[in-house]
Amino acid sequence: MREMKKDNNNISWSLLAKDVSGEMSSDEHLLLQKELAKNPDIEKQVKKLWGDARYAQELESIDTNKAWAKVKNEMSSNQSTSRLKTYSSIAAVFALVLASTWFFNIFSDKSTAVISTSHELQQVILPDGSSVDLNHGSTIKFAKNFTGKYRKVKLSGEAFFDVVRNEEKPFVIETEKLNIQVLGTSFNVKAYKGAHSSEVTVSSGKVSVNTLSGAEKVMLEAGDAVNYSTASNSLDIHKVHTANYKAWKTKEIEFDNNSLTEIIVILEDTYHIKIELEEGIVSDNMVLDATFSQHSLEHVLESVCSSLNLDYTITEGVYRIHNN
Amino acid sequence: MDQKSDLKNQDELLLRKIKAGDERAFELVFKNYYPHLVLLAQKYLGDRDLSESAVQSVFVKMWETRDKVEIRSLKGFLVVAVRNRCTNELKHRQVVREYEKEHEQPETAWMTFNENVYLQRINNVIDELPEQRKRIFKMSRMDGLKYREIAEKLNISPKTVEVQMGKALKYLREQLQPLKKQLLASIVLLIML
Predict the structure, then answer these.
(1) Which of B34, B39, B49 lies closest to A185 in CB terms?
(2) Does A49 sit within 8 Å of B169, measured CB to CB?
(3) A312 has which bridge partners?
(4) What is the pTM of this model?
(5) Which mean pLDDT values do the consecutive 10-residue runs of chain A (324 residues) have?
(6) Is there a single domain that holds both residue B168 and residue B95?
(7) Whether the Cβ atoms of residue A109 and residue A144 lie closer than 8 Å to each other
């Protein structure tokens, strides 16, 4: 009797799920109708929930705080130029003028800025408000005031760009091999000097990438990545399914059926370390599904090792994974 | 009934404060409505970036003209302003007319503070699902993948997808149905200003 009931419950829920996700056959439809006769409200509730779930997830994908920062910025800048009525705003404008001459003096002695990192991450805010997160061993070069037709920067190394939208002034990044042009989006560029390949991965918006020779040009959208191979001088588009490409910045890692070999590469890139694997461990057979959000390297390594029944030790800064 | 008049009072209070130049009140309104309006704009414009900047400009303008414009209903004002802004953006494009034909009234059911609590809770409950079940649910609901496609991608049987989807849906309903009742019954909390 109890078995029966349990079964009924199961059928009902997976049938309902099939119904809302449009997977249902006509036979099943009849079956479901029969079940629903006992509980007429539930179909309506579930359909509503199905709609709400999507809406809620979409809402979550919008960064309201970031948008507020932009709007707030515009609110105050418009205020200081359009309202000169009160003393306080006059004072504010006066202060602004003072501040800007001061900035001008500081920066006008040299018109380009060069910022480099060695063993640290650094965030750079560009003159137009766009932000650039530089990974280890990277250099960015840009004019201190983006005059001219383009907002132009030069990059060697890896960086995550979040570009403020300005349709009148496209944002252009030049690397050793590639030319990247956008209006306003966020994306990752990996273009170390002398490397075999470069990669551009788009988080939001649209990005156009072409080879310096101009021979090839591609248009990327969110979730797309393009790989440039120095050897063949060609661009190759593919989809990215995880956000691991920017884990060096976010420390958000997702293993999606990745083998231990792949996991090691991801961890090395994310935490800027070297991992060795004991000989004899057949790493391609070991796969893992897991997500880690801003955990320490030790925590992640510990979890990876224990779920694969391995262990690790550290000697002179090198991590070594070995059998238990 | 009570809930409705409380909401109205709350909006009036916020609007008065905004008129007096209270940025904090404006921020609250912004944070409450912004993501909903972006999704609304996206129905017209398609592109997320474009939609975000359209909605942002509506808010900037609302702030700049706060002492000139008389607003009776916050939600009504914002929805119309965003819609106008989008139609301007698209100008004579056929798209708008076709869209309006299809959707007599743009859907903006979700916009009050209480409903935001409920929507936030949905996301939390989805996050609580076991890893694989969560992934399957998102692939179906958000990416619109067929069961068969999900099964192939995850290298599992379609039957497993079916079972996992059923369990996910059951869990969501169990967690959310009581909360929804409770929220609808409760009086809207006046936010602290």
Answers:
(1) B49
(2) yes
(3) A321
(4) 0.47
(5) 42 83 85 80 82 86 88 72 48 52 42 80 85 90 82 92 86 90 87 87 89 84 90 88 88 89 90 88 82 86 89 86 87
(6) no
(7) no
